[in-house]
């Protein structure tokens, strides 16, 4: 009971520090700002819509190509053209591509009257880039049969022999696919990439909320260590034995971590969902324990309040920079 009373007093003392309040407000303010942004701005992925009015095996090959190439662009399927146009207008999509009725037959027979409609808005930024990715996928899906049809009409199939026609068809298709799939000759997709995703992934929210939690709890733990070292330099604990000093060091750090952990828990529950409550609880507990141990070790190494205060920004940067780089590499 005595320990709880001491920690409660130390927490009240910590909450009187402007730096502590500023750090604690970092999480809710950041998450509020993220929620206030348009959905497109919360994602690092470039999202475009795909509407195919009459799907067939060729369009399946087309979308399969977009799905199997490396991520970079996200292509979202739509069953309704008005819905896709609304999402382009609202900024959820960078651009939208509409493929009309009988598009596949028109492509194979090179009917220039049938066209792909591209929808953009004032906020569209990458439609020219994603167009190239769409062109690459169209070439992959249709070019072999377009070549067979063109050569058949002009040169080869002026014969009644079905066997000759089938062998010519097979020969052209195999040779064409060999050229497409052989990177030593050329790469049909160049440096373009794409991804065909399910509807619930239209705008993946990859804001680094977890990194924000690491930063907040760790900084609050360091502020608790700083309080302890200030008291230690002022002789507050001079009459206490070593194990009691260690106890007060732990309590000061805990007084910094507890408010940060509570604020992080509430913010993440609102930001994520109640279904994630177990994950959030375990995650915050682990981060809190690691922060307590690391800040205590830092205090033992530096020992003096002034030295610790000068070194604290460098400790924060050196600790969080690898985490930030790791987070960015996953985005």
Automatic annotation (TrEMBL):
UniProt keywords, alphabetically: Membrane, Transmembrane, Transmembrane helix
Transmembrane segments: 250-271, 277-295, 307-328
Protein name (record): ABC-2 family transporter protein
Origin species: Coprococcus eutactus
Taxonomic lineage from the root: Bacteria, Bacillati, Bacillota, Clostridia, Lachnospirales
């Amino acid at each position: 009971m005595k320990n709880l009373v001491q920690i409660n007093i130390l927490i009240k003392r910590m909450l009187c520090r402007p730096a502590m309040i500023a750090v604690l407000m970092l999480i809710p303010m950041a998450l509020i700002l993220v929620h206030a942004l348009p959905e497109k701005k919360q994602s690092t992925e470039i999202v475009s819509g795909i509407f195919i009015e009459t799907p067939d095996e060729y369009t399946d090959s087309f979308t399969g190509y977009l799905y199997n190439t490396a991520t970079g662009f996200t292509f979202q399927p739509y069953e309704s053209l008005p819905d896709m146009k609304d999402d382009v207008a609202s900024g959820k999509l960078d651009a939208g591509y509409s493929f009309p009725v009988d598009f596949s037959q028109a492509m194979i027979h090179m009917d220039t009257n049938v066209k792909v409609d591209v929808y953009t808005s004032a906020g569209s930024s990458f439609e020219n880039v994603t167009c190239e990715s769409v062109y690459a996928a169209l070439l992959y899906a249709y070019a072999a049969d377009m070549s067979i049809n063109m050569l058949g009409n002009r040169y080869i199939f002026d014969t009644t022999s079905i066997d000759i026609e089938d062998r010519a068809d097979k020969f052209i298709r195999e040779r064409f696919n060999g050229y497409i799939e052989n990177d030593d000759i050329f790469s049909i997709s160049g440096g373009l990439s794409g991804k065909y995703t399910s509807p619930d992934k239209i705008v993946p929210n990859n804001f680094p909320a977890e990194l924000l939690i690491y930063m907040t709890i760790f900084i609050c733990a360091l502020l608790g260590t700083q309080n302890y070292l200030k008291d230690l330099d002022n002789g507050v604990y001079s009459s206490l034995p070593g194990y009691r000093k260690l106890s007060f060091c732990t309590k000061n750090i805990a007084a910094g971590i507890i408010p940060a952990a509570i604020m992080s828990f509430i913010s993440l529950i609102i930001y994520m969902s109640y279904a994630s409550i177990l994950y959030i609880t375990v995650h915050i507990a682990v981060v809190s324990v690691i922060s307590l141990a690391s800040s205590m070790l830092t205090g033992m190494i530096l020992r003096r309040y002034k030295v610790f205060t000068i070194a604290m920004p460098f400790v924060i940067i050196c600790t969080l920079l690898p985490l930030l780089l790791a987070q960015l590499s996953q985005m």
